[in-house]
Design goal:
By secondary structure, the protein is an alpha/beta fold. It is 37% helix and 14% strand. The longest helix has 19 residues.
Length: 370
């Protein structure tokens, strides 16, 4: 029998300033297409060191807009990772673009650059890089491959806001980068996302596509292209502004909790703690350990009985029922991703998690796996 949850897996950090910002918008009467989303776009572009930013309703639609704005279409192929949340592949399928998976690095769980070249065909048009769990993929060889083969790069940085590779922000290496702000992320807008680019033409296209295909000359009922309602509302943008103001502090607070986990778990030989790749920083969307000897599910069940919430992060995309049916994927296609997926477990991580709680979680893990 499962105990009542006493330690949640995640919780957003919301303070008085956040609440006031949202209430101020509600009282202003400008709930959509007001000044706040423009202010948020300007400020987050500066934070990410990008020329342009466009706010959207969530990360998935941001990825869809990235695919659409690059003109990717049926018959094209895009190389990506099977170890990710499913939206990084769904965004391709929305436009009938074929995702071509390659396996991952066993240490960082990011796409393995050494496996990309063999997957390139005459139909390959882009690489969709996922920066998983809060740290960058190994971008130098990926950029070299893309340049040599004349491929576009889309960065799914939805889990890695603020992370750097060789002192450059994730989301700013390729043509387009996408961030997301679901409540368990480094910062939140409730739902919401941002698309960043240094290309003005791409930015204008995204701003049109997300707003029903309207032109950008304030002709409200003139639609120049097929578009979508992918806009961010003003309440979410206002929350984003105040969250962004304390983002670096929130990331540092998360790092303090990570250091506690690493201290208490580093000697446990029954699991592997997260590793940070060379030239990379980590902003800790989640804290994921690898549980060895096929005991991940057993550990998860036993922790739940103690009121400790955990989740398996992440199921591989190619073995999802829809993907198996559509593309005939099978077990063994991407063995490293499958192995990691069967072992990884996300532990509780949120601002406000106390040291005594972290210590309790780690002690219970040690007892269960002993």
């Amino acid at each position: 029998m499962l105990a009542q949850v006493s330690i949640k897996i995640a919780s957003p950090y919301i303070d008085k300033k956040d609440k006031k910002a949202v209430i101020d918008v509600l009282e202003s009467g400008y709930l959509s297409l007001g000044p706040k989303h423009l202010e948020f776009e300007k400020k987050i572009a500066k934070y990410c060191r990008s020329k342009y930013a466009s706010s959207v309703s969530n990360g998935t639609v941001g990825l869809h807009l990235a695919v659409k704005s690059l003109g990717l279409k049926e018959g094209d192929e895009v190389i990506t990772t099977p170890f990710s949340f499913v939206s990084s592949s769904n965004c391709l399928l929305f436009e009938r673009v074929k995702p071509v998976f390659v396996d991952i690095e066993e240490t960082t769980y990011n796409i393995d650059p050494e496996k990309i070249v063999k997957a390139i065909t005459k139909r390959t048009k882009a690489i969709l890089v996922v920066h998983i769990f809060g740290q960058s993929a190994d971008m130098t060889p990926i950029l070299e491959i893309a340049k040599k083969k004349k491929l576009k790069i889309i960065e799914d940085a939805c889990e890695s806001l603020g992370a750097k590779y060789r002192n450059k922000m994730t989301g700013t290496f390729g043509e387009i980068g996408v961030f997301a702000f679901y409540p368990n992320k480094q910062m939140t807008t409730g739902e919401g996302g941002i698309v960043v680019t240094n290309n003005k033409k791409i930015d204008l296209m995204i701003k049109s596509l997300k707003n029903q295909g309207r032109n950008l000359k304030n002709d409200w009922l003139i639609h120049e292209r097929l578009g979508y309602n992918y806009r961010m509302d003003e309440m979410s943008a206002a929350l984003g502004i105040t969250q962004l103001e304390k983002l670096d502090w929130m990331i540092n607070e998360r790092k303090k909790i990570i250091n506690l986990y690493n201290r208490y778990l580093s000697e446990n030989k029954k699991l592997i703690i997260p590793q940070i790749g060379k030239d990379r920083t980590h902003t800790w969307f989640v804290y994921v350990v690898r549980v060895l000897n096929n005991r991940r599910n057993f550990l998860m069940k036993k922790l739940a009985e103690k009121g400790i919430q955990t989740k398996p992060y992440l199921p591989v995309i190619h073995l999802q029922p829809f993907m198996k049916k559509e593309f005939n994927f099978k077990k063994g296609d991407f063995p490293i991703a499958e192995k990691i997926s069967s072992e990884t477990l996300a532990l509780p991580l949120y601002i406000g998690l106390k040291e005594k709680q972290v210590k309790y979680i780690c002690m219970e893990i040690e007892k269960i796996l002993k």
